[in-house]
Every structure is written in C-alpha cells, then in structure tokens.
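Batch manifest line 228
LIGAND: glutathione
JOB: complex structure
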Amino acid sequence: MIDLYSWPTPNGQKIQIMLEEAGLEYRAHAVDIQAGEQFLPAFLAISPNNKIPAIVDHGEPGEEPLPVFESGAILLHLAEKSGRFLPAGRTPRKETIEWLVFQVSSLGPMLGQATHFRRYAKAEVEYAIERYTREAQRLYGVLERRLDGRDWLAAGEYTIADIATFPWVCRHRRQGVDIAEFPNVARWLARIGTRPAVLRGMDLLKDAVKGSPMDEKAHATLFGKAAT
Ligand SMILES: N[C@@H](CCC(=O)N[C@@H](CS)C(=O)NCC(=O)O)C(=O)O
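JOB STATUS: finished
ARTIFACT:
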C-alpha cells in the first residue's frame, strides 16, 4: 500500500497518473497547499522542501515504510516497484531518464515561472513575462523536434518521461504557448490525453480544490512571506 500526499497541480498529477497507470494500490491524501498544509510538521517529515507530491511506500509486510519526495524520484521509485514505464535496455533506460530529468529540471521550472508571471504575480512585470514566455516557447520547440517522427519522448514507448511531461504541457495556454505552432506536441498530447488512467489521474483530488479558493490568503501562503 502507498500513501500519496498530493494536490492536483502538474507535479501532483504526474504521480496521480503513474499510480493509476501502474495499477498500484494507494490511498490519496489532499495536502491543501493554498491553506498552508505543506508547512505542517507531519508533512515536512516526509517532504522537507514543503512541496507536494510525496509518498510513503509501506512495501511488503515486515518492511519499514519508505517516504519519497521529489516527483522525479517518486516516478523512478514507482517504475522500479511496478516494473513498468522504465524500459530495462541500456539505451531506452538512459533516454527515459534523460527526458525525465529534462522535465523536472528544465521544462517544469520554466513553465512554472511563465505561469507565475503571466497569471499570479501581483505586478505585471513585462521583462519576466517576456523572458519566461520566450523560454516556454523555446522548450516547446525542443519537444517539437524530439517528437518529429516519434510517438513518445523516449525509448519508442510510453514511459515515465511522457507521464511527467503531460500535466505541464496540457496547460500550454496559461504558459503563453500556441499549441497550433507545435503540431507534433499537439498530437502527442492527444495521444496521452485519452488514456483512461491519465483521465483518472488528472481528475483525482479535484473536489478538494473546489473548497480552497485561490484568494489573497492563499496567494500569501504560496508566494508571500510564509513561503520563505
Ligand atoms: N521539484 C519538485 C517541485 C514540486 C512543486 O513545485 N510542488 C508545488 C505544487 S506543483 C508545491 O507543492 N508548492 C507548494 C509550496 O511551494 O509551498 C517536484 O518535482 O516534486
């Protein structure tokens, strides 16, 4: 059994999708990051960077519960546990890890900044909007070239690299990206977006969000002094 601590943001949804795809048994717990639940000591004990997602894998009977934080580490852990979505061959495994790391270290942080300055920043900072929107468009160009003649990002099959990337790229509008300019990416999005496990993973915990508006208090919790 796995305890999942999440919130339906792109980083949370990666793990929600993976658990659904791999058919692993899990219990989902909402961590309301807009209400500051990520700063509670019990959550910090599993996720010291006060961010979702995190899991506790209870493993086999007799094993110690294993906490894991950072979405990339969680995806690798779940892929190894389930034996799915991380091919074993030398080159396919290397490619999958490369595109997973590209997502967690380049794509996610930059698309996050584009969204922040376009949608959440209190002041309209033109320089930051331009800088991060341009960077988002450049990164979509990287994906577009990679998906030219390929159905999947790595290894010639659906892997944790695709699972990690999908919940970020499906939010292209708020990142200032016109997906029509990236037809290979648009086709890849459509290919993944109809998978039943992806739909279930994307929907998980959505009801919890309905009771947690993104108001002044939530903004201060996420982006104000409390967040430092
Ligand atoms: N590098 C982390 C990033 C996780 C992350 O940024 N989580 C956001 C939601 S998408 C969060 O928990 N934010 C709450 C906060 O910063 O206080 C990962 O990939 O797991």
